[in-house]
Design a protein that fits this description.
Layout lengths: L4 H8 L13 H4 L4 E4 L7 E5 L4 E5 L5 H8 L2 E4 L4 E4 L4 E4 L28 H9 L8 E3 L11 H17 L5 E6 L2 H11 L1 H7 E7 L7 H10 L15 H8 L3 H4 L15 E6 L13 E6 L4 H8 L4 E4 L2 E4 L4 H15 L8 E8 L1 E9 L18 E7 L5 H5 L7 E6 L9 H11 L8 E2 L4 E5 L14 E3 L4 E5 L7 H5 L19 E3 L6 E6 L3
Parallel strand pairs: 1-7, 1-8, 8-9, 9-14, 10-15, 14-17
Antiparallel strand pairs: 2-3, 2-6, 4-5, 10-11, 12-13, 15-16, 18-19, 19-23, 20-22, 21-23
Helix pairs in contact: 6-7, 6-12, 8-9
Length: 528
């Protein structure tokens, strides 16, 4: 960690002052307004008491667990579809300062050290402002109570109001939406429920690391044992894993992120249990070998419900039963059906950016062959053993790619679910999709490289007949001659030639061969 004093001073005393430079750069006048939509845990939440006093309850790194239990623990109300705080004198609000950006910028503004865990959209906001976007005119945020359902009518009405206010503030321009993680589920819910409104006010939607078909391993373990958002020594300052579990078990949004039962998985996610075989009376047989039980998406809900049947929450000394909530399961199933009917308007461009090259939890296993489970409730006290697939570490690639929409482009970036928001390759793609500045005819978003044609007079065709690509390099020059021609003849033509090649992700230090054709290009990684 490091203290960025320059950045902190700029936050305290912004320079230049707003209004110091009234000149509006020509290139920024035509920018469509951008709306940032965070994912689960990506919005600041305030607890507001009956006297109107506000206290930041999420995120905070000091006295976090105590205040979390006191103010944020909640129970689901099936009549309204909302989860409500147990503290009757407290309401939960999302601050709307800085046109909604404050709530999804630095999640704990009191932290003076750079902590990537709480610097949510901060780097992206800075990049967008460097490109000419202005808060309140062309740059906005949409924080929301992420405990609630993604299709909650209250969320949908606030999202409507946000799009209308952006439209007016920007002089009648449609919005470009950038969503991260579960924010993509909220946006897709809005698209499904308010298609015509979406068409009227949205120009494009860029989804980043969205769990369109759920996050099987991650969410299953969240519902059974909880989750730690902060790792290492910092977790001692943050919310305890079991406290997080007691909140999530009553959150509709979490149930909406379970693996989709209707999706055709290449290999359906499973809950796996090493169990002791039972005797006729139903008791475990200590002398029999352990067996591995497997449950797919249509079966493991029964197992999870059995494991959580006796789960309780201790709230100020009161013991409250909190089993797996069947009413929320019904609500979440309806949400999935609504998401399936979402259809993108022909006037709206959709881009799907996914994270790849990270081991991502998929199958979830409790117990082991040597230490099988005695009782199903033992699961709640065990650490999961995952089987992994490709993805961003949280969302499997197969899920994030299956958006079900008519996408302009689906593209992967090797990156972590959260860290992808700070990746310069993401910035390069966003700049291209948002059409910021003068277009670069040689930029290829698929590879995130710039291809610069070179005249053949600069090419030494005598000495370069074959080439290869080393993945870890930052700059390569590809010099290829056309078969059957000598360098002298080609140099006199003054033509440019194009190299075609195949490449892909590989192990560190691996070499990919390049297929030749008549070409000459300079290939360099673009820096943003």
């Amino acid at each position: 960690m490091r203290i960025n004093f320059v950045e902190k001073v700029q936050d305290w005393w912004p320079w230049p002052w707003p209004g110091d430079d009234d000149a509006e750069p020509e290139k920024t006048r035509d920018l469509n307004p951008v709306l940032l939509v965070p994912g689960i845990g990506g919005s600041i939440l305030h607890a507001v008491n009956e006297k109107g006093h506000k206290e930041r309850i999420w995120v905070r790194l000091f006295a976090a667990d105590h205040e979390f239990r006191a103010k944020l623990f909640s129970l689901y109300d099936p009549l309204t579809g909302k989860t409500n705080s147990l503290d009757a004198n407290t309401t939960i609000e999302v601050p709307d300062d800085r046109f909604g950006l404050y709530s999804c910028d630095i999640l704990d503004p009191a932290v003076i050290f750079r902590m990537n865990d709480v610097y949510y959209f901060h780097d992206l906001i800075k990049q967008l402002t460097d490109w000419g976007y202005q808060e309140g005119t062309t740059l906005f945020g949409f924080g929301y109570d992420f405990r609630q359902s993604n299709r909650l009518s209250e969320h949908m009405e606030k999202f409507k109001a946000k799009l209308v206010s952006m439209y007016k503030a920007s002089g009648g321009k449609k919005a470009d939406i950038i969503s991260h993680s579960m924010g993509g589920i909220l946006v897709k819910s809005f698209l499904a429920l308010h298609h015509d409104f979406f068409e009227q006010y949205v120009n494009s939607w860029i989804a980043v690391a969205a769990p369109f078909q759920g996050a099987p391993g991650f969410i299953m373990d969240c519902l059974l044992t909880g989750v730690e958002f902060v790792k290492g020594w910092q977790r001692q300052l943050f919310v305890a894993k079991w406290s997080m579990h007691q909140l999530l078990i009553e959150c509709p949004s979490v149930y909406e992120l379970m693996a989709s039962e209707d999706f055709t998985w290449t290999d359906p996610p499973e809950l796996r249990l090493w169990r002791k075989q039972t005797e006729e009376n139903g008791e475990p047989d200590p002398d029999s070998p352990s067996v591995l039980e497997r449950y797919g998406p249509k079966d493991y809900l029964q197992v999870m419900s059995a494991a959580l049947r006796g789960n309780t929450m201790n709230y100020n000394g009161a013991i409250i039963p909190t089993p797996m909530n069947t009413e929320i399961l019904k609500w979440a199933e309806k949400t999935r059906r609504i998401l399936q009917i979402a259809e993108l308007p022909s006037s709206v461009k959709f881009y799907n950016i996914v994270g790849t090259s990270n081991d991502t939890p998929f199958h979830t296993c409790y117990g082991s062959k040597e230490s099988p489970i005695d009782q199903i409730t033992d699961i709640l006290n065990l650490e999961a053993d995952f089987s992994f697939v490709d993805g961003d570490g949280t969302v499997p690639l197969e899920s994030s790619m299956a958006d079900g929409l008519n996408a302009e482009l689906r593209i992967g970036i090797p990156g972590d679910h959260r860290a992808i928001l700070n990746d310069e390759r993401l910035f390069g793609l966003l700049k291209h999709f948002l059409k910021v500045g003068d277009p670069d005819p040689f930029y290829d978003p698929v590879w995130d490289f710039v291809f610069v044609p070179r005249p053949t007079s600069e090419v030494d065709l005598e000495d370069h007949r074959s080439i290869s690509v080393v993945e870890e390099s930052e700059t390569w020059q590809f010099i290829v001659s056309e078969d059957g021609h000598d360098g002298k003849h080609l140099s006199g033509t003054g033509e440019h030639f194009v190299t075609t090649f195949t490449t892909g992700l590989g192990a560190k230090g691996s070499v990919k061969n390049v297929r030749q054709s008549r070409t000459s290009w300079l290939w360099r990684r673009n820096r943003w």
